[in-house]
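Standup notes, protein team

Yesterday: finished cleaning the Janibacter cremeus set.
Today: Cytochrome c domain-containing protein structure.
Blockers: none.

Input for Cytochrome c domain-containing protein:
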Amino acid sequence: MDPITNPYAPGAGQRPPELAGRDEQISRFDVVLKRIVSGRPERSLMLTGLRGVGKTVLLNQLRSAAVRAKWGTGKLEARPDQGLRRPLSSALHQAVRELGHTHEDEVAHVLGVIKSFAQRDAKPGTKLREVWNPGIDAPAVKGRADSGDIEIDLVELFTDVGGLAADLGRGIAIFIDEMQDLGPDDVSAICAACHEMSQNGAPLIVVGAGLPHLPAVLSASKSYSERLFRYQRIDRLARDEADHALTAPASDEMAEYEQEALDALYFATGGYPYFIQAYGKAVWDQAPQSPIRADDVRVASPEAESELAVGFFGSRYERATPGEREYLRAMADVAADIAAKGDEQLDDIESVLTSDVANLLDKKPQSLSPARDALLKKGLIYSAERGRIAFTVPHFGRYLREQT
Protein backbone atom coordinates (compact mmCIF):
# COMPACT_ATOMS: atom_id res chain seq x y z
CA MET A 1 0.00 0.00 0.00
CA ASP A 2 1.20 3.52 -0.76
CA PRO A 3 2.60 5.05 2.49
CA ILE A 4 1.95 8.54 1.13
CA THR A 5 -1.81 7.90 1.17
CA ASN A 6 -1.75 6.22 4.58
CA PRO A 7 -4.86 7.70 6.25
CA TYR A 8 -4.13 6.85 9.89
CA ALA A 9 -2.86 9.37 12.44
CA PRO A 10 -1.39 7.97 15.69
CA GLY A 11 -0.39 11.34 17.13
CA ALA A 12 -0.95 12.73 20.62
CA GLY A 13 -4.21 14.66 20.45
CA GLN A 14 -4.20 14.43 16.65
CA ARG A 15 -7.63 14.06 15.14
CA PRO A 16 -8.06 10.69 13.42
CA PRO A 17 -9.46 10.67 9.89
CA GLU A 18 -12.68 9.14 11.23
CA LEU A 19 -13.81 10.20 14.71
CA ALA A 20 -15.76 7.03 15.37
CA GLY A 21 -17.94 6.39 18.40
CA ARG A 22 -18.22 9.97 19.64
CA ASP A 23 -21.41 11.12 17.90
CA GLU A 24 -23.44 11.00 21.11
CA GLN A 25 -21.06 13.29 23.01
CA ILE A 26 -20.90 15.76 20.11
CA SER A 27 -24.68 15.92 19.66
CA ARG A 28 -25.20 16.38 23.41
CA PHE A 29 -22.78 19.28 23.41
CA ASP A 30 -24.65 20.95 20.56
CA VAL A 31 -27.76 20.80 22.73
CA VAL A 32 -25.85 22.36 25.64
CA LEU A 33 -24.71 25.27 23.48
CA LYS A 34 -28.24 25.95 22.23
CA ARG A 35 -29.80 25.68 25.68
CA ILE A 36 -27.35 28.12 27.23
CA VAL A 37 -27.85 30.84 24.63
CA SER A 38 -31.60 30.34 25.08
CA GLY A 39 -31.22 31.17 28.76
CA ARG A 40 -31.92 27.63 29.94
CA PRO A 41 -29.85 26.09 32.74
CA GLU A 42 -27.01 23.76 31.84
CA ARG A 43 -23.96 22.33 33.56
CA SER A 44 -20.31 22.48 32.65
CA LEU A 45 -18.91 19.25 31.26
CA MET A 46 -16.15 16.90 32.38
CA LEU A 47 -14.71 14.19 30.10
CA THR A 48 -12.90 11.39 31.92
CA GLY A 49 -11.05 8.31 30.74
CA LEU A 50 -7.77 6.48 30.41
CA ARG A 51 -4.96 7.78 28.26
CA GLY A 52 -5.31 6.91 24.61
CA VAL A 53 -9.11 6.95 24.45
CA GLY A 54 -9.24 10.27 22.61
CA LYS A 55 -10.21 12.78 25.31
CA THR A 56 -8.05 15.55 23.84
CA VAL A 57 -9.33 14.87 20.33
CA LEU A 58 -12.92 15.05 21.57
CA LEU A 59 -12.15 18.19 23.56
CA ASN A 60 -10.86 19.86 20.39
CA GLN A 61 -13.91 18.66 18.46
CA LEU A 62 -16.25 20.18 21.04
CA ARG A 63 -14.31 23.42 20.86
CA SER A 64 -14.76 23.44 17.10
CA ALA A 65 -18.51 23.04 17.64
CA ALA A 66 -18.50 26.06 19.95
CA VAL A 67 -16.55 28.10 17.39
CA ARG A 68 -19.07 27.19 14.69
CA ALA A 69 -21.82 28.41 17.03
CA LYS A 70 -19.94 31.75 17.17
CA TRP A 71 -18.99 31.34 20.83
CA GLY A 72 -15.79 32.71 22.26
CA THR A 73 -13.45 29.86 23.15
CA GLY A 74 -10.08 29.37 24.78
CA LYS A 75 -8.07 26.30 25.72
CA LEU A 76 -5.34 25.48 28.21
CA GLU A 77 -3.53 22.41 29.44
CA ALA A 78 -3.10 22.16 33.18
CA ARG A 79 0.35 21.36 34.56
CA PRO A 80 1.24 20.35 38.12
CA ASP A 81 3.99 23.00 38.28
CA GLN A 82 1.91 25.91 37.02
CA GLY A 83 -0.84 27.98 38.60
CA LEU A 84 -4.11 28.76 36.86
CA ARG A 85 -3.88 32.53 36.45
CA ARG A 86 -1.53 32.82 33.48
CA PRO A 87 -2.84 30.07 31.19
CA LEU A 88 -6.46 30.90 31.99
CA SER A 89 -5.85 34.59 31.27
CA SER A 90 -4.46 33.71 27.85
CA ALA A 91 -7.40 31.42 27.14
CA LEU A 92 -9.94 34.06 28.15
CA HIS A 93 -8.12 36.72 26.15
CA GLN A 94 -8.50 34.54 23.07
CA ALA A 95 -12.17 33.87 23.88
CA VAL A 96 -12.94 37.58 24.12
CA ARG A 97 -11.19 38.22 20.81
CA GLU A 98 -13.24 35.46 19.15
CA LEU A 99 -16.49 37.04 20.36
CA GLY A 100 -15.87 40.12 18.26
CA HIS A 101 -17.80 42.48 20.54
CA THR A 102 -18.15 45.86 18.83
CA HIS A 103 -18.35 48.09 21.93
CA GLU A 104 -14.69 48.94 22.42
CA ASP A 105 -15.10 50.44 25.90
CA GLU A 106 -16.79 47.32 27.28
CA VAL A 107 -14.24 45.05 25.66
CA ALA A 108 -11.37 47.16 27.02
CA HIS A 109 -12.85 46.94 30.52
CA VAL A 110 -13.11 43.14 30.41
CA LEU A 111 -9.62 42.79 28.95
CA GLY A 112 -8.38 45.05 31.74
CA VAL A 113 -9.98 42.72 34.29
CA ILE A 114 -8.28 39.72 32.64
CA LYS A 115 -4.97 41.57 32.79
CA SER A 116 -5.51 42.44 36.42
CA PHE A 117 -6.33 38.80 37.20
CA ALA A 118 -3.18 37.61 35.45
CA GLN A 119 -0.80 40.10 37.00
CA ARG A 120 -1.99 39.32 40.53
CA ASP A 121 0.20 36.27 40.10
CA ALA A 122 3.31 38.44 40.48
CA LYS A 123 5.24 38.06 43.72
CA PRO A 124 5.47 41.00 46.12
CA GLY A 125 8.28 43.38 45.21
CA THR A 126 8.33 42.43 41.52
CA LYS A 127 9.31 45.42 39.38
CA LEU A 128 6.71 46.71 36.94
CA ARG A 129 8.79 45.83 33.87
CA GLU A 130 9.15 42.27 35.17
CA VAL A 131 5.41 41.70 35.65
CA TRP A 132 4.08 39.16 33.14
CA ASN A 133 1.87 40.69 30.47
CA PRO A 134 -0.76 38.49 28.81
CA GLY A 135 -0.48 40.51 25.59
CA ILE A 136 -3.35 42.84 26.47
CA ASP A 137 -2.96 46.52 25.57
CA ALA A 138 -5.81 47.71 27.80
CA PRO A 139 -4.80 49.01 31.27
CA ALA A 140 -5.39 46.70 34.22
CA VAL A 141 -8.63 47.35 36.10
CA LYS A 142 -7.72 47.81 39.74
CA GLY A 143 -10.04 46.37 42.37
CA ARG A 144 -11.53 43.69 40.12
CA ALA A 145 -10.36 40.06 40.07
CA ASP A 146 -7.12 41.06 41.83
CA SER A 147 -7.80 40.37 45.52
CA GLY A 148 -5.25 37.57 45.62
CA ASP A 149 -7.91 35.02 46.61
CA ILE A 150 -8.16 32.89 43.46
CA GLU A 151 -11.73 31.84 44.26
CA ILE A 152 -13.03 35.39 44.66
CA ASP A 153 -11.05 36.63 41.68
CA LEU A 154 -12.21 33.88 39.33
CA VAL A 155 -15.88 34.44 40.18
CA GLU A 156 -15.48 38.15 39.38
CA LEU A 157 -13.56 37.40 36.19
CA PHE A 158 -16.08 34.85 34.89
CA THR A 159 -18.94 37.21 35.73
CA ASP A 160 -17.45 40.01 33.62
CA VAL A 161 -16.47 37.79 30.70
CA GLY A 162 -19.83 36.03 30.73
CA GLY A 163 -21.61 39.38 30.72
CA LEU A 164 -19.75 40.41 27.59
CA ALA A 165 -20.94 37.26 25.80
CA ALA A 166 -24.50 37.74 27.05
CA ASP A 167 -24.60 41.16 25.34
CA LEU A 168 -24.25 39.37 22.01
CA GLY A 169 -26.59 36.47 22.77
CA ARG A 170 -23.69 34.04 22.62
CA GLY A 171 -21.47 32.28 25.14
CA ILE A 172 -17.93 31.60 26.36
CA ALA A 173 -16.47 28.09 26.65
CA ILE A 174 -13.14 27.40 28.31
CA PHE A 175 -11.56 24.02 27.57
CA ILE A 176 -9.10 22.59 30.11
CA ASP A 177 -7.08 19.48 29.27
CA GLU A 178 -5.34 17.33 31.92
CA MET A 179 -7.59 18.96 34.48
CA GLN A 180 -6.61 16.54 37.24
CA ASP A 181 -3.24 18.34 37.37
CA LEU A 182 -4.69 21.60 38.67
CA GLY A 183 -3.70 22.54 42.22
CA PRO A 184 -6.29 22.22 45.02
CA ASP A 185 -6.90 25.98 45.28
CA ASP A 186 -7.38 26.27 41.51
CA VAL A 187 -9.79 23.34 41.45
CA SER A 188 -11.79 24.92 44.26
CA ALA A 189 -11.89 28.22 42.36
CA ILE A 190 -13.09 26.56 39.14
CA CYS A 191 -15.87 24.80 41.04
CA ALA A 192 -16.95 27.97 42.84
CA ALA A 193 -16.93 30.04 39.66
CA CYS A 194 -18.90 27.45 37.68
CA HIS A 195 -21.39 27.25 40.54
CA GLU A 196 -21.84 31.02 40.46
CA MET A 197 -22.27 31.04 36.66
CA SER A 198 -24.87 28.29 36.89
CA GLN A 199 -26.84 30.08 39.60
CA ASN A 200 -26.83 33.36 37.67
CA GLY A 201 -27.54 31.80 34.29
CA ALA A 202 -24.40 33.36 32.80
CA PRO A 203 -23.44 31.97 29.36
CA LEU A 204 -20.04 30.66 30.40
CA ILE A 205 -19.09 27.01 30.80
CA VAL A 206 -15.94 25.01 31.46
CA VAL A 207 -15.29 21.81 29.53
CA GLY A 208 -12.62 19.75 31.25
CA ALA A 209 -10.86 16.53 30.34
CA GLY A 210 -8.87 14.34 32.67
CA LEU A 211 -8.01 10.92 33.98
CA PRO A 212 -10.63 8.68 35.60
CA HIS A 213 -10.02 10.09 39.08
CA LEU A 214 -10.93 13.66 38.03
CA PRO A 215 -14.41 13.39 39.62
CA ALA A 216 -12.75 12.48 42.92
CA VAL A 217 -10.39 15.48 42.62
CA LEU A 218 -13.35 17.82 42.09
CA SER A 219 -15.43 16.21 44.84
CA ALA A 220 -12.59 16.55 47.34
CA SER A 221 -12.58 20.28 46.65
CA LYS A 222 -16.32 21.00 46.70
CA SER A 223 -18.91 18.45 47.77
CA TYR A 224 -21.46 19.91 45.40
CA SER A 225 -19.22 19.24 42.37
CA GLU A 226 -20.96 15.88 41.93
CA ARG A 227 -24.09 17.83 40.93
CA LEU A 228 -22.32 20.82 39.44
CA PHE A 229 -20.81 19.08 36.40
CA ARG A 230 -22.05 16.62 33.84
CA TYR A 231 -19.56 13.76 33.72
CA GLN A 232 -19.02 11.73 30.56
CA ARG A 233 -16.79 8.70 30.62
CA ILE A 234 -14.85 8.34 27.38
CA ASP A 235 -14.08 4.66 26.88
CA ARG A 236 -12.67 2.36 24.25
CA LEU A 237 -14.71 1.81 21.11
CA ALA A 238 -17.24 -0.95 20.64
CA ARG A 239 -16.44 -3.52 17.98
CA ASP A 240 -18.51 -1.92 15.20
CA GLU A 241 -17.10 1.53 16.04
CA ALA A 242 -13.52 0.24 16.00
CA ASP A 243 -14.09 -1.43 12.64
CA HIS A 244 -15.56 1.81 11.27
CA ALA A 245 -12.51 3.78 12.48
CA LEU A 246 -10.38 1.52 10.28
CA THR A 247 -12.60 0.88 7.27
CA ALA A 248 -13.96 4.39 6.65
CA PRO A 249 -10.54 6.03 6.04
CA ALA A 250 -9.44 3.01 4.00
CA SER A 251 -12.55 3.25 1.85
CA ASP A 252 -11.72 6.87 1.05
CA GLU A 253 -8.45 5.56 -0.39
CA MET A 254 -10.23 2.75 -2.31
CA ALA A 255 -8.95 0.04 0.05
CA GLU A 256 -10.70 -2.69 2.06
CA TYR A 257 -10.12 -5.09 4.96
CA GLU A 258 -10.90 -8.77 5.10
CA GLN A 259 -13.02 -9.72 8.11
CA GLU A 260 -10.22 -11.80 9.60
CA ALA A 261 -7.95 -8.76 9.51
CA LEU A 262 -10.49 -6.69 11.43
CA ASP A 263 -10.83 -9.51 13.97
CA ALA A 264 -7.06 -9.56 14.48
CA LEU A 265 -6.87 -5.77 14.81
CA TYR A 266 -9.62 -5.60 17.40
CA PHE A 267 -7.91 -8.31 19.43
CA ALA A 268 -4.61 -6.41 19.27
CA THR A 269 -5.99 -2.94 20.01
CA GLY A 270 -8.77 -3.73 22.46
CA GLY A 271 -10.77 -0.95 20.78
CA TYR A 272 -8.59 1.84 22.18
CA PRO A 273 -8.54 4.70 19.63
CA TYR A 274 -4.82 5.47 19.88
CA PHE A 275 -3.91 1.81 19.39
CA ILE A 276 -6.28 1.58 16.43
CA GLN A 277 -4.45 4.43 14.72
CA ALA A 278 -1.01 2.99 15.55
CA TYR A 279 -1.83 -0.49 14.26
CA GLY A 280 -3.76 0.88 11.29
CA LYS A 281 -0.77 2.93 10.17
CA ALA A 282 1.67 0.04 10.55
CA VAL A 283 -0.59 -2.45 8.77
CA TRP A 284 -1.23 -0.07 5.88
CA ASP A 285 2.49 0.44 5.33
CA GLN A 286 3.18 -3.32 5.40
CA ALA A 287 0.23 -4.60 3.38
CA PRO A 288 1.19 -5.22 -0.29
CA GLN A 289 -2.29 -4.59 -1.64
CA SER A 290 -6.02 -4.36 -0.89
CA PRO A 291 -7.83 -6.10 0.65
CA ILE A 292 -5.76 -6.03 3.84
CA ARG A 293 -5.50 -9.55 5.29
CA ALA A 294 -4.93 -11.11 8.70
CA ASP A 295 -1.41 -12.08 7.57
CA ASP A 296 -0.69 -8.40 6.97
CA VAL A 297 -1.74 -7.65 10.53
CA ARG A 298 0.54 -10.38 11.85
CA VAL A 299 3.53 -9.08 9.88
CA ALA A 300 2.92 -5.45 10.89
CA SER A 301 2.18 -6.04 14.56
CA PRO A 302 5.83 -5.99 15.73
CA GLU A 303 6.29 -2.56 14.14
CA ALA A 304 3.14 -1.22 15.83
CA GLU A 305 4.16 -2.71 19.16
CA SER A 306 7.64 -1.21 18.85
CA GLU A 307 6.16 2.22 18.13
CA LEU A 308 3.87 1.98 21.16
CA ALA A 309 6.68 0.67 23.36
CA VAL A 310 8.76 3.78 22.68
CA GLY A 311 6.24 6.57 22.23
CA PHE A 312 3.31 5.49 24.40
CA PHE A 313 4.49 3.11 27.10
CA GLY A 314 8.22 3.67 27.34
CA SER A 315 8.09 7.44 27.71
CA ARG A 316 5.85 7.04 30.74
CA TYR A 317 7.84 4.19 32.26
CA GLU A 318 11.03 6.27 32.04
CA ARG A 319 9.44 8.92 34.29
CA ALA A 320 9.34 6.46 37.20
CA THR A 321 12.18 5.92 39.66
CA PRO A 322 13.56 2.40 40.26
CA GLY A 323 11.37 2.03 43.35
CA GLU A 324 8.31 3.22 41.47
CA ARG A 325 9.03 0.84 38.59
CA GLU A 326 9.15 -2.03 41.05
CA TYR A 327 5.70 -1.01 42.25
CA LEU A 328 4.38 -0.82 38.67
CA ARG A 329 5.73 -4.28 37.82
CA ALA A 330 4.17 -5.68 40.98
CA MET A 331 0.78 -4.25 39.95
CA ALA A 332 1.12 -5.94 36.56
CA ASP A 333 2.08 -9.26 38.16
CA VAL A 334 -0.82 -9.17 40.62
CA ALA A 335 -3.25 -8.59 37.76
CA ALA A 336 -1.69 -11.46 35.80
CA ASP A 337 -1.97 -13.80 38.80
CA ILE A 338 -5.65 -12.95 39.21
CA ALA A 339 -6.29 -13.62 35.53
CA ALA A 340 -4.36 -16.92 35.63
CA LYS A 341 -6.08 -18.30 38.74
CA GLY A 342 -9.55 -17.43 37.55
CA ASP A 343 -11.03 -17.59 41.07
CA GLU A 344 -11.39 -13.80 41.18
CA GLN A 345 -12.79 -11.62 38.43
CA LEU A 346 -10.38 -9.07 36.95
CA ASP A 347 -12.25 -5.91 36.00
CA ASP A 348 -11.92 -4.03 32.70
CA ILE A 349 -9.30 -1.62 34.03
CA GLU A 350 -7.31 -4.41 35.76
CA SER A 351 -7.46 -2.68 39.12
CA VAL A 352 -5.74 -4.44 42.00
CA LEU A 353 -5.73 -4.18 45.77
CA THR A 354 -2.86 -2.18 47.26
CA SER A 355 -2.59 -4.87 49.93
CA ASP A 356 -1.99 -7.52 47.22
CA VAL A 357 0.82 -5.42 45.75
CA ALA A 358 2.39 -5.12 49.18
CA ASN A 359 2.09 -8.88 49.75
CA LEU A 360 3.76 -9.65 46.43
CA LEU A 361 6.66 -7.34 47.30
CA ASP A 362 6.75 -8.74 50.84
CA LYS A 363 6.55 -5.25 52.30
CA LYS A 364 4.23 -3.39 54.60
CA PRO A 365 1.67 -1.23 52.75
CA GLN A 366 2.82 1.85 54.69
CA SER A 367 6.38 1.50 53.39
CA LEU A 368 5.09 1.59 49.81
CA SER A 369 3.02 4.74 50.28
CA PRO A 370 5.75 7.11 48.97
CA ALA A 371 6.10 5.17 45.71
CA ARG A 372 2.35 4.85 45.29
CA ASP A 373 1.75 8.55 45.98
CA ALA A 374 4.49 9.57 43.56
CA LEU A 375 2.97 7.42 40.81
CA LEU A 376 -0.42 8.95 41.49
CA LYS A 377 1.02 12.46 41.17
CA LYS A 378 2.81 11.53 37.94
CA GLY A 379 -0.47 10.31 36.49
CA LEU A 380 0.78 6.75 35.90
CA ILE A 381 -1.77 5.14 38.20
CA TYR A 382 -5.03 6.22 39.79
CA SER A 383 -7.24 5.06 42.61
CA ALA A 384 -10.48 3.66 41.22
CA GLU A 385 -11.79 3.21 44.76
CA ARG A 386 -10.36 3.14 48.24
CA GLY A 387 -7.76 0.40 48.56
CA ARG A 388 -7.60 -0.27 44.80
CA ILE A 389 -5.33 1.14 42.09
CA ALA A 390 -5.12 0.83 38.33
CA PHE A 391 -2.95 2.01 35.45
CA THR A 392 -3.98 5.20 33.67
CA VAL A 393 -2.57 3.72 30.44
CA PRO A 394 -4.45 0.79 28.86
CA HIS A 395 -2.42 -2.39 28.28
CA PHE A 396 0.37 -1.00 30.46
CA GLY A 397 0.45 -4.15 32.56
CA ARG A 398 0.93 -6.28 29.46
CA TYR A 399 3.76 -4.00 28.32
CA LEU A 400 5.50 -4.30 31.68
CA ARG A 401 5.22 -8.09 31.71
CA GLU A 402 6.62 -8.35 28.18
CA GLN A 403 9.34 -5.69 28.37
CA THR A 404 10.72 -5.77 31.91
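Follow-up from PR in the comments: The beta strands are 44-48, 72-77, 172-177, 204-210, 229-233, 352-353, 381-385, 388-391.
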